[in-house]
């Protein structure tokens, strides 16, 4: 063999050995993994390793593995999430209630009659007992006064303006910072696995739609919520939808399966909630043939967030907590299962 050929063979051998060593080092350090050479990464890094995290990942693997007994086609991979208390904080009160109160105060100078007329007087004075004594009629009056009368575009702009400036009373941060980091990761994980993810909330649909995509990556057309009636108007060549002072639909409790059927048209295979207001959505999701998964966020962390369940005025979790074990629903213990709660706590 010519000397030049020997040198070439030696060079090739050395190169092959370096490639082999590089592959071994890459595998050892987790750069390469699996037969496809795909990067291994933790899809839920803010979740502690344990039964809850393992159950979620195992379910997703089951329904996304082609050829498996529980494989679910992508068009049927529907996931629904409650918002308040499931995707972001709902204490010490619902965020939309804070928006309502701030609007009421801003509008008060144009309504001097509110200084003596109930329930506006009580609300402006912070007399929650008096407002509560007025029942749903009082609540409806406050909602209509602050949420109706304008066009949908005007209301959306009011929401966007408020959500960028309002701050949470305990943490003194924008309300959007109070989204749960582990749940944001869960939404992203499901989307990466070709689930279509919806918000199904008792909150106002037009209150949520201006900001859900920026916070959760869930676009407005995938948000289902409570609504008031709209009326189409045409002024010259300017069309508008006018918000009327009348309830159209309440997307809470037994209304959630109805809202899912009307707005989505498919039964979810994955649902997440945190309160008895989500009970019927979890039943609707899981009490059907095929692989299905339901999750309840249990608020157990008084230090990083709040600890509440059965006796809470906001986000009461009683019947659903009792039903979960028999149904096989996953109850996520916030204190034990989450490494962090909010993004700013990392």
Automatic annotation (TrEMBL):
Keyword list, A-Z: Plasmid, Signal
Annotated signal peptide: 1-33
InterPro entries linked: HAD-like_SerB, HAD-like_sf, HAD_sf
Protein name according to UniProt: NapD-like protein
Domain of life: Bacteria
Organism: Azospirillum baldaniorum
